[in-house]
Amino acid sequence: MLDKQQGLTIISLSYQRTTGLATLMDGLLKQNLNGLEIEYIICNNSDQTVLRPSFFTKIGRLVKKFKDIKILNSSHNYRCQIRYQLATLAKYETVLFLDDDVVLLDKNFIFDMWQTHQHLPNNSILSCWCTLWSVWQEDSLTKIDINFKQQIINELLLCDTAGPGISMFTKTIIMHPRILDMTPEFKKSDDMGFSLLANLTNASQVYYFPSWQRLKFHDTEKNKHAISKEKSYFGNVHAVWKALWKEGYKPVLERSSPENKKTHLLAQEKLPTKKVDW
């Protein structure tokens, strides 16, 4: 039996992807939570739509079904940065960022991810969309993408970066000023420096949560209004990663145990690597 104080705050950002958001909300309502209390916060970054309880829209009807839901309809597009400010207001200590293009395929996914996170070391970040750095040099980086679209890694794995849009962490991590105010520092790459900054400020470690066939991207909403479509986006992401590596971030392969390195070796053998200039 769970303690009455145990719960999870889920935060979703949305920008004119109401079809995807409705699918995500429907999936959340169908989760087997085993008594886990949920607070759901939605930030609507578009002034072209208004999200509210209503019998006349699909999202409006879904909103009415949540026991504890808060909606912020913004007249300004705050992009990804706003989710960190919202996380400071979370009712529960554990927070899950969940983007509006994610489809939940497994009714036990949320509870299983929460339960796994409870047993990780303090300040850990648990994500379903990670990268592992295999080679890092002054002018280039070789990385391995490890995510829920693959069946290769079926156990928890230490990684270097976490995709913030599918990540779970404790609220205390984001209270550091550099994380709360990433936009001026890393404006062009949005919040992809989150996990590396968390490591530098809180000694946070990133763990990949195996999730093959447990979730997927929405078929039509994935690439709609995607920030990653902006020119030079990934170049800016890699520039941020390099800056934080030069500042003192120590890649996982330099600090992982021999046991973890066996799984890392499997990842390097089975998954494609990508070399990028940074």
Return the string of H and E elements.
Answer: EHEHEHEEHEEEEEEHHHEEHHHE
> Can you give the mean pLDDT?
91
* Strand content range: 15-25%
- Describe the strand arrangement of the main beta sheet, using strand numbers: 3-2-1-4-11-6-12-9
Biggest sheet layout: 8 strands, mixed
What do we call the CATH homologous superfamily?
Answer: Spore Coat Polysaccharide Biosynthesis Protein SpsA, Chain A
Topology:
Layout: E1 7-14, H1 18-29, E2 37-44, H2 58-63, E3 69-73, H3 82-87, E4 94-98, E5 102-104, H4 109-118, E6 125-127, E7 129-136, E8 140-147, E9 157-159, E10 161-162, E11 166-170, H5 177-180, H6 182-185, H7 194-202, E12 206-208, E13 215-217, H8 233-247, H9 252-255, H10 258-270, E14 273-277
Parallel strand pairs: 1-2, 1-4, 2-3, 6-12
Antiparallel strand pairs: 4-11, 5-13, 6-11, 7-8, 7-10, 8-14, 9-12
Walkthrough of the structure:
Helices cover 30% and strands 25% of the residues. It is an alpha/beta fold and 278 residues long. The protein has ten helices and 14 strands. It has helices at residues 18-29, 58-63, 82-87, 109-118, 177-180, 182-185, 194-202, 233-247, 252-255, 258-270; strands at 7-14, 37-44, 69-73, 94-98, 102-104, 125-127, 129-136, 140-147, 157-159, 161-162, 166-170, 206-208, 215-217, 273-277. The protein has one domain: Spore Coat Polysaccharide Biosynthesis Protein SpsA, Chain A (Alpha-Beta Complex), CATH 3.90.550.10. It is globular and about 55 Å long. Strand 7 and strand 8 (140-147) form a beta hairpin. The strands form three sheets. Strands 3-2-1-4-11-6-12-9 form an eight-stranded mixed sheet. Strands 10-7-8-14 form a four-stranded antiparallel sheet. Strands 5-13 form a two-stranded antiparallel ribbon.
